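pasting for the record
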Amino acid sequence: MNVAKANGIELAWDSFCNAEAEAILLISGLGTQMIRWTKPFCEALAAKGYRVIRFDNRDAGCSTHFSASAEPDFGALAAALMAGCQPDVPYTLYDMAADAIALLDALGIERAHVVGRSMGGMIAQVLASDHADRVLSLTSIMSSTGNPALPQAAPDVMAMMMRPAPDPVLDPEGFLTARLVLARRIAGTGYPFDEESHRSFLLEEVRRCYYPAGVARQIAAMEVAGDRRARLATIKAPTLVIHGTDDALIPLGCGQDTALSIPNAIYLPIKGMGHEMPSELNRTVIEAICGVAKVRSRFTGA
């Protein structure tokens, strides 16, 4: 793992393949660490001839934690938004997009293919709309546009998301039980749920850096981002939108809306996929990412 000073903070990152290859930047989702982009996935993507870079978002993993910032008051935040005011939050998705740009600067990368999942997909969308000169192609996975008319997460899933898990140091089994119930619920029905693999991965995340306090601030950043469809309509980079038909956290309609909002976007719904990417889909997702990257190459001669 490496650490880069970027946008006034520190971002933990690592990469696969040599530094001369064209870059693919992988952006993680809400409260998750860069290792959610698993090593086998990154290695297989790098084997296609790309330099694959993953990093911890601010307030997650081993990147800078905003522990001096107060936990957001979601009641006040909702009231401000209803009144048409911009709430005061520690940071926004636009700050998180600026982090990604600053990381590319620190690594000496002029332009990159950008791939984001869930909240990371929203950050990737901001990059492609607001930093178009830095983005070669966009892949938005299980993400959304901020359109307020879209379907919301299943109520039981949202309740699980917002309910604090037991402390993994004081009650490791209670922690694993709670997180596995959520993981199983959002996994979808199309692929076997490997409980042992999920258990091992959760423990790896805890050992690496367990920091749940950042989740509320990242949720606040998403809440104040608003409806981004007008921004998405300006995206010119070749775009791929991937979404699972069984996603109970960010429903399928959100992926459809993303694809409809971005001109000429390629839409790839995956039957049976929920709000995760099982290893059985690595090849499918990698081929799709490389396909949209090659669209850019055909038009530019790169």
